[in-house]
Amino acid sequence: MNTVCAMLAAVLLDAWLGEPRRAHPLVGFGRLAQWIEKHGYANRRASGVLAWTLSVVPPVLLLGGLQRCVPAWISWCLAVLVLYAALGWRSLHEHARPVADALVMDDLAAARRAVGRMVSRDTAVLNASQVAAAATESVLENGNDAVFGALFWFALLGAPGVLLYRLANTLDAMWGYRTPRYAQFGWAAARIDDVLNFLPARLTACTYACCGHVEAALRCWRTQAPQWDSPNAGPVMAAGAGALGVRLGGAAPYHGVWEERPQLGEGDAPDAHSIRCALRLLRRGVLIWLIVALLLGFVLRGGMHA
């Protein structure tokens, strides 16, 4: 029950406070990773493995050791703070709502600026439907990375587990690109993130399916996810799009070039309503996870006292 209570406390903290406004730990970690890359970069997989290890392993071991050295209540509070820092539930709402609001007001320029803070594609050339698609995709995909994946690894391995997951996820976002610079150096970051996200992504896809149009979500997951580049983003976004009854994917501009992507979902073209529905889907999913965690906690506690 300590783990379940910590999950509840961290989610409530995130809903109340949002992400830390100053000195976010992941920002500091990003600077550390940049320093390690600057001084240890070589276009070899071994170099990337070493850089990943030096970036991630010491903080995780330090946290695990610290929790063992302090009283139980301090260890619990530390776990809550680590999970709170790893969550980005409220942040997703704060980034996506302005996009939806701008689209409702027919202010395409403001919508493009707002969605530009969520995605890496070239937003200046997007029309209203493409802006809505970008924001909806970001909510669905980051629902796994910044919410359900974090909750999964915290439930499984506690604070060190969620720290490992979020640091690995951050390095994937920094190094996991198929570019000449990162094709070899970033190989480890990309593959490790794929492994850590394999189960959470599929649980997230199941969650989206349960919270929306179940049959459409499962059908899109089965038929469309294998066509997507990422083995984990595919199930998450295909199931999410099917659950929402909206069409996502398709061509998107990156670095001045339009890249063809498979279609995800089915139904109507995305709009402001799609973004809000994606946020609602995420809220329902978080509620389900917390209820399931509470039920499991009571069952396990009852089994221990039996």
Automatic annotation (TrEMBL):
State the protein's name. Cobalamin biosynthesis protein CobD
Q: How does it sit in the membrane?
A: Multi-pass membrane protein
**Which parts pass through the membrane?**
49-66, 73-92, 146-168, 286-304
Purpose of the protein: Converts cobyric acid to cobinamide by the addition of aminopropanol on the F carboxylic group.
Q: Which compartment or compartments is the protein found in?
A: Cell membrane
In terms of superkingdom, the source organism counts as: Bacteria
Pfam families hit by this protein: CobD_Cbib (PF03186)
Main subcellular localization, coarse class? membrane
Name the InterPro entries on file: Cobalamin_biosynth_CobD/CbiB
Q: Which gene encodes it?
A: cobD
Give the source lineage, highest ranks first: Bacteria, Pseudomonadati, Pseudomonadota, Gammaproteobacteria, Lysobacterales
HAMAP family noted in UniProt: CobD_CbiB
- What family is this? Belongs to the CobD/CbiB family.
- UniProt keyword annotations, A-Z: Cell membrane, Cobalamin biosynthesis, Membrane, Transmembrane, Transmembrane helix
Pathway annotation from the record: Cofactor biosynthesis; adenosylcobalamin biosynthesis
